[in-house]
Amino acid sequence: MRTLKGLEDAVPVSVASPGLDGSWKFKRAGGPDTGTIAPCLDKANACRTLKQIYRLRRGGYDGRSTVPMPWDKASKDVVCNESYDIIHLFNSELNSVAQNPGLDLSPPQLKKRIGEWNQIIYPNSKRQQRGLYSQEGYDKALNDLFSTLDKLEVHLANSGYLCGDTLTLVDICLFTTLVRFDLAYNVLLNCTKKKLCEYTNLHAYLRDIYQIPKVAATCNFTDIMDGYYKILFPLNPGSIRPVMPSTCEHESLCRPHARESLSSATVAFVK
Most exposed of 102, 161, 203, 217 (fewest Cβ within 10 Å)? Predict the structure, then answer.
């Protein structure tokens, strides 16, 4: 959302890395600049950890410190730390400083449909993570998850995006789940019934959004895999990161998606 709205200058981003102790830390990224958003130092407060930033709030704070999190430099406070609230904020509340203020991914006429799709996608994409601790929970979560993917596959056969031919906030939410599916969910979270690349329409839809100008640069696949396999989850005690599936590589995601005929959207994205 930050990229699509053209908020890069108005909302600089500092990327925290998950530490071995479970905390979020800021560090200078090594290696060549690949153009993707990558771990870096804290540009706003020069803090070494995310917890230090939360403690800068008036009255302090020693609770759980999470990302993503927009920080208000003027008031020294957390704006919010829920992803769905943040994309709403970026979509409509910062137009005065956006390079692409005319882009509205939650137009009034689609709000109801966006809400309906969100109620289908969000619970079922998260349920698998909550059902990992018993066979009964796993079976129920897996059935719900793949039933949702099957429904999406059928819907996207004749629809450019979830709410018709226009990209909306719910597509952004779904994209962030789909782009991680074969990288981590399929293997680490035992979502093994099918790979995303086996869904013809869903995978083409993923490539369609990935190929929107500047979106690919927001997807750091190496960091995604490191976060899941090496640090954040106790499900991979050997901390061995598997080889990235070939269908998740940049070259593969840039293959033609042949979905142009399903969309008549005329929004001009910032390039």
Answer: 102
Tell me whether residue 97 is in a domain: no
Q: How far is CA 32 from the centre of its chain?
A: 24
Q: Give the Cα separation of 23 and 111 in Å (integer).
A: 36
Phi then psi for residue 251, to 5 deg, are -60, -40
Distance separating alpha carbons of residues 250 and 233, to the nearest angstrom: 25
Q: Tell me how far CA of residue 12 lies from CA of 67, 70, 71, 99, 184, in angstroms.
A: 15, 10, 10, 14, 28
Q: How far is it, in rounded angstroms, from Cα 174 to Cα 195?
A: 16
24 three-state secondary structure: strand
- Considering the domain architecture, whether residues 163 and 219 belong to the same structural domain is answered as yes
Q: How many domains does the chain have?
A: 2
List, in sequence order, every residue forming a beta bridge with 161; answer none if it has no partner.
164
Residue 241: give its domain's CATH number: 1.20.1050.10
pTM for this one?
Answer: 0.89
